[in-house]
Amino acid sequence: MNLNERKFEELMNKMTFDDKPDHCHRDKLEQELLAAFAQRQWQQERQSRQNGVWRAIMQNKQMRLAAVAAIVVITGMAGIQFLTGTNAYAQVVQEIRNARTVVFTILSQSNNGNGETIKTDMAYKEPGHLRTSTVDGYICIGDFTGSKIMSIVPQGGYSIGDLNSLKATPGNPGPFASIEAMKNLPAKADAKLGAKEIDGIDCEGYRVTQGDLTSIIWLDAKTGDLVQVEHKYTSAPGMNTIIKNIKFDVELEDSLFSMTPPAGSKPMAVEMKSDAALQTEETFVAWLGWWANGNTDETFPPIVAGTEMAKVCMDMAKQGKLKGSSWEKVNPQQMYNAMLFVALLPREESKWRYAGNGVKINTPNTPIFWYRPAGSQTYRVIYADLTVREMTEDQLPK
Amino acid sequence: MIARNLQIDYENRMMNVSEVSGFQFEPDQMTQAKSDPGAFTRLYLRHYDAIFRYCAHRLFDRTAAEDITSEVFLKMVENFQTFDGNEKQFRNWLYRIATNAVNDHIRKTTRRSTILTWVGWGSSNSNVNETVAADESQDNQTVMKKALLMLKPDEQAIVTMRFFENLKHEEIAEVVGTSASTVRSRLSRAMEKLRKHISSAQIEGQEVTI
Asked: How far is A37 from chain B (nearest CA, A)?
């Protein structure tokens, strides 16, 4: 220290200012830090677990299809934790963060709004167990930690798949585009909506828009409990999802997630192969034609993607609508390829839309599906006569 | 509680003593502090006083200093898992966070003008019943505080770390992310500015003449 600095130091030392730390503040801050420290540790553990589960999901296309709806819900609900701004939110956030199990019902309206709404019950249990079940008894159990999936059909059959047998397409989030959007929800809701009564409960709504996806979260106005979550897609009006009956930390028996087939059930020899070269528009068009020509109504399927496809097939077979009258006659591999073609289209980028529900094959001038291929400025539009035309956005059906 | 405070004060004093030969937390203890709340608390308590004092000397406002100190340590918790270094580097890291936080505080709240007003107001009000001599002494301190607060935030940070916290040029350099020679020249410029501010104040008795 030179002379000038020493003089300054002496001068500074003469200054009197109450700089004695206050132990009360120090102790209070200590408690805050310990809480933040614990919260941070918990978040990291949870993130680590979620990343593990996420990787397992993303590595498998078969699982992508089987779990799309469920994962949308789970991730969507996890996404709610990013919403803040009111005490009610804070409570919901805390509840979600602390939840070890979640059960809910998802209502999928996967077409233009004039089709069947499919109801599926979901149960999730940490660290990575998922069970979906329909009222008709179609069950899908995913063990994300063990990378196994088991499908059980009410006819007494089951199939178990190895999630590691298939590889994902790098860089294509496919049906998870909306999930990624949910994972990146902004810190605050865009808007607080008005009141609405849902199932006799007075609710307050909050809206968050993230790219193509708009989430509307309804909380009980009195208790602040999460009542309902709605997902809507701008580019696909009518393809909505509603999540209801949401409960956290309910007791869920391990047996619900057991990968042991039900007693008396028989294995179904359904082996899917994933081949990107076959997941093409051509395959999809061929499958649409096969479907329409293969059912007694000669109509296109009510939906073209999602876990509900198996149930739709089964129902049609049950009703005798499938020519050949047996669900075994369904070509699962072709259906799988066609569904993957749709499921792996990034929803926001491709803006795909299906409008074929109830439309008869060869109905003139009737578009049933359109999408924008990656990197293209124009759209591919598939018509009911199975021709495909190129169109600009303003030429698309309204 | 008193016993605990005495213990903490003792440990902090020991830490200051230990600064001569190095810091007490070994690398494995730093790692332990990332997962062990007890070790984390010990680390926090060992550095709380220094960070509070630094903030207080930057702002001359106890309340604001406590707020900034809270902000600094909460930010530390947020990023502690990614911190990789020894305890000395940890201390310098805290100073860096604190420097940024104080500078932000000054910028965001146009604190400089507010502080200047407060310093003048605070000293005159707090000495209503004191003697004239004490008033004069207080006036000199007020001039000094004002002079410090007239400096640019980064200059003020260097001056505070050098003269109040007794950090070496090299340590300050690490905190502000520059070289020791740059710190020396900035310090020199800051002292020259202080000298001018003080001279222009024309304090009676020239107690603050340098």
From this structure: 6
